[in-house]
Amino acid sequence: VLEDWEMHLARRETEALFQEQPETGNQYLEDTLLRSYLKTHLPPKVLEEVHRDLERFGNRLVTKIQPLSWECELNPPVFRQYDAWGQRVDDIHTCTAWRRMKEISAEEGLIAEAYEKRYSNWSRLYQAVKLYLFSSSSGGFSCPLAMTDGAAKVIESLGIPGSLKNAFDRLTSRDPKKFWTSGQWMTERRGGSDVANGTETMARKQPDGTYRLYGFKWFTSAADSDMALTLARIADAEGQCTQGSRGLSLFFLRVRDEEGKLNSIQVQRLKDKLGTRQMATAELWLQGARAELISAEGRGVAAISNMLNITRIHNVIGAVASMRRMISLSRDYARKRVAFGKLLKDHPLHMQTIARMEVQVRGAFLLLMEIVRLLGLAETNLASQQEQLLLRLLIPVAKLYTGKQASAVAVEAMESFGGQGYMEDTGLPVILRDTLVLSIWEGTTNILSLDVLRSLAKSQGQVMAVFLSTVQKKLELASGTEELSAAVQRTREAIGNLQQFMAAVGSEQALTMEMAARDFSYSLARIYTGRQRQESQNHGWAGWEGTLNPTQCHPCHGRDTSHCPRLLQAPVSNLALGTARDPGTA
Ligand code: UCC
Ligand code: FAD
């Protein structure tokens, strides 16, 4: 009996030492940076209404929506190609929780808010904040919402033609019974980055003016969506198509008809993905899918770029939300987990690790807010030409940079839970997996870096002037604050490096700029968020960083660069950009 009693006591002791799981409460109320941003920027009347709604939404997220999110993870979509009698059905079955997410998205106006413009230029920002809070509890539903928003934006930018009025109303509806989501079918087997050369899908005009599409779409996310925007080449009477970008046009199509029958589309299979497994990504054969041409012929890429710019902003939202969730959990864990006789929060080194992640997410959050603030101004005709240029530049910069940041933060944060971080049923690996895609889809880091250059070229350099003058103004404001003086100084030095680099690139711009595109873009992100590393002043720290200058390295200008010994030894792209390096938490 005594032995039993001792065992009981020992067991109680062990159980008492067991750590509680990390939790988050109302994500709105707990996010001091978000709340202070809203307080500083929103007009008081708007703030009052928005605050009430966000507090309510924050509670709904933690009590009702978060559990659905886990259900989505546990019940990923299932594809059934044939029924029991051998009939081809191509049914993508989604779980109840996923379908509930669609209803909640409508009820909460997660798309509608931006188009109703109840708060004029602040509506976009308000929508983005709701999406940011929703993202990590959405069970992957953020993905269809991104594309739905993008599709609504394209249709709005076309002036909402009569034939698309129904679609627009549904995409922006608050009625769960009416609400539609959209897909974005761009990627084909031959290329997802090089869409201009990768697209083989052909469009044949029908006597009634509609088109039938024939081709194979290699990645189609949220394949359970109601409609899609997609690219195809219009065939002439002889069946010939114009190749390249100028041959691409944009089409609207319904995925299924009123009876739920697929629109001459066959689902080949669902992708077996590392993450985002809650959401169906399919390979689709278009076998004469009926579609409507919605851009001018040959202007498909330009027309769909309205969608890309919106979905890329959603990507930034997802990246910031992921970092915020990981860090919130990590902080909570540090308050509960004991190591070496004290809580993790009392170990300075552990707290330094968390603080470094916090700095990352804060910079990223403020960059996101800046973008949606500018977008709101642009959409209500309140943006100056300079603000429009800045918005065009900051979208790819933020997408590429925050995608990388989020991946690095997710890995670091996972480690902050020790072995538990690696355990599947904690849910932490889900966040990591879902985060890793953010730098791939919606344009990879390199492709977005080239888009940064595109925005520079298109504005004939004006955008850089706007960027620099905007940063200078922000620095002037900050320079009055003593605590910020060192950071202001470092940012000024980084701007100096950037200007020096641009001046030195001079006439050999094309190749150098292409090679430098990634690091150049990172520099823009770091400068805009005021995040310069002290180490960047020391050129020795990265081995090769800052050791070349652009005029030194062009033996192979205009030729195949792959064998250039200098390029193999030292990435030319870091020329003079002392601030560039992969975003990380170190
Ligand atoms: O991945 C996808 C969906 C994933 C699921 C959704 C998740 C959402 C986030 C959720 C968060 C949780 S959909 C597939 C995404 N695919 C891409 O992003 C494609 C990546 N490749 C590019 O971005 C390339 O740069 C291309 C395709 C745009 C390059 O095409 P071109 O035709 O070779 O490029 P051009 O000739 O330079 O551009 C054609 C026109 C030009 O206008 P004009 O002719 O007037 O000079 C460009 O200025 O398009 C214009 N343009 C743009 N305009 C190109 N890009 C842009 C842009 N970003 N903004 C404005
Ligand atoms: P590639 O274009 O072959 O690129 C391979 C590598 O080469 C990349 O690292 C890229 O950065 C680099 N590279 C390519 N060109 C250059 C260059 N000029 N300079 C420097 N580097 C270069 N697509 C859709 O259309 N709709 C969807 O719904 C969709 N959903 C997706 C869901 C998931 C989970 C994933 C992973 C992808 C999805 N995609 C979707 C596809 C996605 O957009 C593409 O995978 C992406 O754009 C990259 O295209 P790719 O896979 O063809 O890679």
UniProtKB/TrEMBL annotation:
It holds the Pfam family AidB_N. Its cofactor is FAD. SUPFAM superfamilies: Acyl-CoA dehydrogenase C-terminal domain-like (SSF47203), Acyl-CoA dehydrogenase NM domain-like (SSF56645). Residues 23-157 form the Adaptive response protein AidB N-terminal domain. Residues 462-530 form the Acyl-CoA dehydrogenase 11-like C-terminal domain. It comes from the Eukaryota. InterPro entries: ACDH-11_C, Acyl-CoA_dehydrogenase-like, Acyl-CoA_Oxase/DH_mid-dom, AcylCo_DH-like_C, AcylCo_DH/oxidase_C, AcylCoA_DH/oxidase_NM_dom_sf, AidB_N. Residues 298-456 form the Acyl-CoA dehydrogenase/oxidase C-terminal domain. The keyword Flavoprotein applies. The keyword Flavoprotein applies. Residues 184-287 form the Acyl-CoA oxidase/dehydrogenase middle domain. Keywords: FAD, Flavoprotein, Oxidoreductase. Belongs to the acyl-CoA dehydrogenase family. This is Acyl-CoA dehydrogenase/oxidase C-terminal domain-containing protein. It comes from Hirundo rustica rustica.
